[in-house]
Amino acid sequence: MIRNYFTIALRNIRQNPLYSFINIFSLAIGLAACMVIYLFIQDEKSFDAFHAKGDRIYRVDEVQSFPGTNVQKVALTMPGMAPAFKADFPEVENITRFMNRQKMLVSKGDNRALIPNMAFVDSTFLDIFDFNLLQGDRETALDEPYSMIVSESTAKRFFKSTDEANGQHADARGKRMEDHRYYGRRSRTISHEVRCIDLDGNGSGRRQGIQ
Predict the structure, then answer these.
(1) CA 43, CA 41: separation in Å to the nearest integer?
(2) Which of 155, 157, 201, 206 could bond to 165 as cystine, CB 3.0-4.6 Å?
């Protein structure tokens, strides 16, 4: 039975090559479009999906509208909005601010390295996001000012092991890489407590360090 179906299909293709090509090509385009849509939706749904509170985590965007330009949404808000949201909206359980610093010069003695993907966060960051800490106490990891959490690979660039890195200090100097001016119009060297964190995952964890 199946063999007859294939025979009839091949016969129709030979007799109507143009019509068959249009049908097969359209089917291929439709299947490819479905695959692309499926992969896109799967990627969007997997973003930060490993966090236990993922269904309650929201990012606040800013809607920008300037004369002569189109309205656009950007992942940017003013620093004062976070405490204002917490104070004015009782349904907001917790907040954290996140500022991407891109690259920072980190040093430990004579060992220096330009570490990419650094970020400043609030002390509540680990209360919202469930990143796996390899060393240290997540409840107090960011409580002290100027404390730092780094990835395992970054810790091993300055220390022999993650165990040795935990509780140690390193110097970090913020620098704007795009215009070569130091952040805040001057160089700042701050001692940070270094802890190790597993930042692997899909989403906001693709960082080498947070502080």
Answers:
(1) 5
(2) 155
- 3 state SS of 193: strand
- Asked whether 202 and 173 are in contact (CB, 8 A), the reply is no
Query: From the CB of residue 119, how many other CB atoms can be counted at a distance below 10 Å?
Result: 19
Q: Is the pTM of this model over 0.85?
A: no
The encoded tokens of residue 147 equal 């404390």
Residue 61, helix vs strand vs coil: coil
Number of Cβ within 10 Å of residue 160's Cβ equals: 9
CB 206 within 8 A of CB 102: no
CA angle (176, 210, 161) in 5-degree steps: 115
DSSP 8-state symbol, 83: H
Amino acid type, 73 = K
What is the gyration radius of the CA atoms in the chain, in angstroms? 26
Q: Cα 62–64–70 angle (5° rounding)?
A: 140
Closest C-alpha to 210, from 134, 133, 151: 151
The rounded distance, in Å, linking the Cα atoms of 147 and 123 is: 9
Window from 12-26, 62-76, 85-99, 143-157 with minimum mean pLDDT? 143-157
CA angle 88, 98, 155 (to 5 degrees): 145
